[in-house]
Design goal:
Strand order of the largest sheet: 2-1-3-8-7-4-5-6
CATH class: Alpha Beta
Strand content: 5-15%
Mean pLDDT: 95
Shape: globular
CATH architecture: 3-Layer(aba) Sandwich
Helix content: 40-55%
Structural class: alpha/beta
Radius of gyration: 17 Å
Largest sheet: 8 strands, parallel
Distance between the termini: 5 Å
Number of strands: 8
Length: 300
């Protein structure tokens, strides 16, 4: 059975002005349960990630300051959230969720984290709503335990996975692939193993053609035995931060292409949701739910 990581702490309430991005973490599993796409047996609640696993990726000094709520005001501004014990615990649970999903994917072919995709976190700092880099932590976890030999991270969030690129720049066993807005955040890009920066206004046909002409050859070249897929829906035309012009159907076709490809090659895949900032929460939830529905059709 396909497994989905979800915890009530994912929707941890934040001060006024920060709550909207968190709503989807409650609404996505509720919608999937309501429509009958999943049952409660699909869902599991992760625990907090162990320090020893975090420290395979993140600097100990930064991690200890995170736990002790000792980030400076400047660091909190760069992250975009005020620090709190609840927020730190939330990030630890999300990170463990991605690790657990990787283990379930080895068994079932695919697993999804309702949260995750915190790709702006660096070894020694957080950025862009990200405190810890869940996919980098999970990738290092798997390599450290010899559960994978070659990992491909497919990052299709509209924002470049700068933290992931930097964290993995000297790890030959992990290939980072990012498709993002050329002129979008982060304005200082890091160097992934393969970056494709698209211009503002990139629409569905252009985007999907790029993916179809790039990803199959990349999979053949890299020969991964595990894939992490960051399926951000901030590529939607409705997204207030995205600057792309993909429709809901385009976004669904993107996810279908990626999931069909890894399924065809029998490569286990863990999916994390990444960003989504459309003003109407229904657009965000529907786009993310499509990702789950497609995975359920293929792997459940």
């Amino acid at each position: 059975m396909l497994k989905i990581a979800h915890s009530s702490i994912y929707a941890h309430p934040l001060p006024e002005g920060h709550r909207f991005p968190m709503l989807k973490y409650e609404l996505i599993p509720e919608q999937l349960l309501y429509e009958g796409s999943i049952t409660e047996s699909h869902l599991f609640a992760p625990e907090k990630c162990a320090a020893q696993d975090i420290l395979l990726t993140h600097d100990e000094a930064y991690f200890q300051r995170l736990l002790a709520q000792q980030l400076t005001a400047s660091e909190q501004r760069v992250i975009g959230f005020p620090q709190s014990e609840q927020l730190t615990n939330r990030e630890l649970v999300i990170t463990q969720g991605t690790i657990d999903c990787a283990l379930f994917a080895l068994e079932h072919g695919c697993a999804l984290n309702v949260a995750g995709g915190t790709h702006h976190a660096f070894a020694d700092r957080g950025e862009g709503f990200c405190l810890l880099n869940d996919m980098a932590v999970a990738a290092n976890y798997m390599l450290h335990r010899n559960l994978a030999k070659k990992i491909l991270i497919i990052d299709l969030d509209v924002h470049q996975g700068n933290g992931t690129a930097k964290l993995m720049e000297n790890t030959a066993e992990v290939f980072t692939f990012s498709v993002h807005g050329k002129n979008n955040y982060p304005f200082r890009k890091e160097t992934s193993d393969l970056d494709i920066g698209l211009e503002d206004g990139a629409a569905g046909p252009e985007y999907l053609e790029m993916l179809e002409t790039t990803l199959p050859g990349l999979v053949d070249k890299v020969q991964p035995d595990f894939v992490f897929y960051l399926s951000g829906v901030d590529v939607l035309a409705t997204d207030k931060l995205g600057k792309f012009k993909l429709s809901l159907e385009d976004c669904k076709l993107r996810d279908k292409f990626v999931l069909d490809l890894v399924h065809k090659h029998k490569i286990p895949v863990t999916v994390a949701l990444g960003g989504g900032y459309s003003p109407d929460i229904k657009d965000i939830v529907e786009a993310h739910c499509n990702t789950f529905r497609l995975a359920l059709d293929l792997f459940d």
